[in-house]
TrEMBL record:
Gene3D superfamilies: 3.40.50.2300, Winged helix-like DNA-binding domain superfamily/Winged helix DNA-binding domain. InterPro entries: CheY-like_superfamily, EvgA-like, NreC/VraR/RcsB-like_REC, Sig_transdc_resp-reg_C-effctor, Sig_transdc_resp-reg_receiver, Tscrpt_reg_LuxR_C, WH-like_DNA-bd_sf. Residues 15-132 form the Response regulatory domain. GO terms for biological process: phosphorelay signal transduction system; regulation of DNA-templated transcription. It comes from the Bacteria. This is DNA-binding response regulator. The modification 4-aspartylphosphate is found at residue 67. SMART domains: HTH_LUXR, REC. Keywords: DNA-binding, Phosphoprotein. GO terms for molecular function: DNA binding. The lineage of its organism: Bacteria, Pseudomonadati, Pseudomonadota, Alphaproteobacteria, Rhodobacterales. Residues 158-223 form the HTH luxR-type domain. It holds the Pfam family Response_reg.
Length: 232
């Protein structure tokens, strides 16, 4: 006898946080979500750090909508850090870059769904309905790579390892990628330099690398700048 699959409880969804640095798009998407997806309140953040600060305060939004290309981060690293802060709140990526490699990487990093920026209003309704029902939303025509195929790509391996970092470690790695020394990082984060050194050691261990340079290269393996059009 075939077992009955467990039912996923519907997720209440009345509020959202849009993370995007394009004011006009934020306004348009906010109106769309309110009009077609039944969301009553929509907040916006124009950069990742602003969004992370918002997610440190209660109550959390019911949905986070994220653009990958932000002033303070580009690529999957931002999604990974946001997912860590969002907890059980689903993150829907909305990006103008709908390359299958980008979509697959977003899903691997924990996104609950992906919607191209040029999508019609009914697509946003369908996406929110899918997430509200406890499922995922994938754009029409997207085909995931079959499991058990080729060995993971460099980007996939980097995503898996970066997901092991804590929020503080992810922030420190971002500052390392900006070329900052331990002393500067300690000043920026208001922590002791010895604490920074301990975090750097833990970061390299989790990433499986032997130097800061190798850690930066792994982080940049998740950067989709070369695949994105200029409007992100």
């Amino acid at each position: 006898m075939t077992p009955t699959p467990a039912r996923i409880a519907p997720r209440p969804m009345a509020t959202a946080l849009i993370v995007d640095d394009h004011p006009l798009f934020c306004d348009a998407l906010s109106m769309t979500l309110k009009a077609v997806a039944g969301l009553g309140a929509v907040e916006t953040a124009d950069r990742l750090e602003t969004a992370l600060a918002r997610l440190d305060r209660a109550p959390l939004p019911d949905l986070v909508v994220l653009d990958l290309n932000l002033p303070d981060v580009t690529g999957i690293d931002g999604l990974i850090r946001l997912r860590q802060a969002a907890g059980e709140v689903p993150v829907l990526v909305v990006s103008s870059m709908a390359d299958p490699r980008v979509i697959g990487a977003c899903l691997a990093a924990g996104a609950a769904g992906f919607v191209p920026k040029h999508a019609r209003r009914d697509v946003f309704r369908a996406a929110v309905d899918a997430l509200r029902g406890g499922g995922r939303y994938l754009p029409e025509g997207y085909e995931a790579e079959p499991p058990g195929g080729a060995r993971p790509s460099t980007r996939q391996e980097a995503i898996s390892r970066l997901a092991l970092l804590t929020r503080q470690q992810s922030r420190i790695l971002q500052l390392i990628c900006e070329g900052k020394l331990n002393k500067q990082i300690a000043w920026d984060l208001t922590i002791a330099e010895t604490t920074v050194k301990a975090h750097v050691t833990a970061i390299m261990r989790k990433l499986g690398v032997q130097s800061r340079t190798q850690a930066v290269l792994m982080a940049k393996a998740t950067d989709f700048t070369s695949l994105m059009p200029e409007d992100g």
